[in-house]
Amino acid sequence: KGEGHVEGEKIENPDTGLYYDEYLRQVIDVLETDKHFREKLQTADIEEIKSGKLSRELDLVSHHVRTRLDELKRQEVARLRMLIKAKMDSVQETGIDHQALLKQFEHLNHQNPDTFEPKDLDMLIKAVSARYK
């Protein structure tokens, strides 16, 4: 039956196929709760987004939004650490370069695992853009 879109109903987006898809969706959802950032996102063209210009707007979002983004990043870093540990446990090799493993995850700044900064948003945008070139 052709039932229309109900006001307030969330539309399910297709899976992007990215291993950090859930993190990406959560970051976007949180950023869209900030009126100023949502307006900038809606008016930005694709080149502004890819160039990192939009990432600088992160400094203007509310404290609540930044706190939630920090929390999301810490959760994502913990998830990635679990993946690395599982990989190490399965391989059982010595001399693994942990930094090299972390560098595989280019969608966030692994050198700062506690706070979500403009660099993190820029890296997330660039990782998604590189996937769809």
Summarize this entry quickly.
This protein has 133 residues and is mainly α. It has helices spanning 21-31, 35-43, 46-51, 63-91, 98-103, 118-131. The protein is built from six helices and no strands.
Helices, strands, pairings?
Layout: H1 21-31, H2 35-43, H3 46-51, H4 63-91, H5 98-103, H6 118-131
Helix pairs in contact: 1-4
What structural category arises from helix and sheet content? Answer: mainly alpha
Cα radius of gyration in angstroms: 17 Å
Q: What percentage of the residues does DSSP assign to strands (E)?
A: under 5%
User: What is the succession of H and E elements?
Assistant: HHHHHH
Number of helices: 6
Helix-residue proportion? 55-70%
Q: Biggest β-sheet, characterized?
A: none
The number of domains is: 1
Based on CA inertia axes, which overall geometry fits?
globular
- How many β-strand stretches? 0
Mean pLDDT: 81
How widely separated are the two ends? 37 Å
GO molecular function, one term: calcium ion binding
Pfam families: NUCB1_N
Subcellular location: Cytoplasm; Golgi apparatus; Membrane; Secreted
Main location: cytoplasm
Structure, described:
- The protein has 133 residues and is mainly alpha-helical.
- The chain has one domain.
- It contains 6 helices and no strands.
- α1 runs antiparallel to α4.
- The longest helix has 29 residues.
- It is globular, with a radius of gyration of 17 Å.
Keywords for this entry:
133 residues; 56% helix; 6 helices; mainly alpha
